[in-house]
Design goal:
30% helix, globular
Length: 151
């Protein structure tokens, strides 16, 4: 998948599976809403959630967005996360609007504002993708370079 195809794919409202490292060194996985702007991935969570506490200790994160139910098409973004609790509501609104009807967004924002919310921004260091087979075949035919295997 090239950058444009990945951005288009991530514009769909997939559920993200967020992986952080717990205090025992094991992966901790949770579902989350997200938004990708072509450069960074943003998520909103609560300060009392384990993923937030994990990121305070170790800011390494991986996030997988995939097509259910087969899950053969996906994007995995791995990198470092920063957490911020200031001026988060415009981005929170954009994330909520991806998943809820327009007439529900204000109520969600109002409820979230009563909770200890934090914006997580993921700066990608590695991105792995798997596109639908038809896209892969088209890319392979159009590209002078051999396809790179996904690891």
């Amino acid at each position: 998948m090239n950058q444009q195809e990945m951005t288009t794919y991530l514009a769909a409202s997939h559920i993200a599976v967020v992986a952080t490292i717990n205090r025992h060194g094991h992966p901790h996985l949770t579902p989350n809403w997200y938004r990708y702007d072509g450069k960074v991935l943003t998520l909103i969570t609560r300060k009392d959630r384990l993923k937030y506490r994990n990121l305070q200790r170790d800011n390494h994160i991986s996030v997988c967005m995939y097509d259910p139910p087969v899950a053969s098409n996906y994007v995995v973004i791995s990198g470092t996360a920063t957490c911020n609790d200031q001026d988060i509501w415009d981005e929170a609104r954009r994330i909520i609007a991806r998943y809820r009807a327009a007439d529900e967004v204000d109520a969600y924002v109002a409820r979230w504002k009563t909770e200890p919310r934090v914006l997580i921004t993921v700066t990608p260091e590695h991105i792995a993708t798997r596109a639908p087979r038809s896209v892969c075949v088209q890319q392979e035919a159009a590209s002078p370079l051999p396809p790179r295997p996904i690891r």
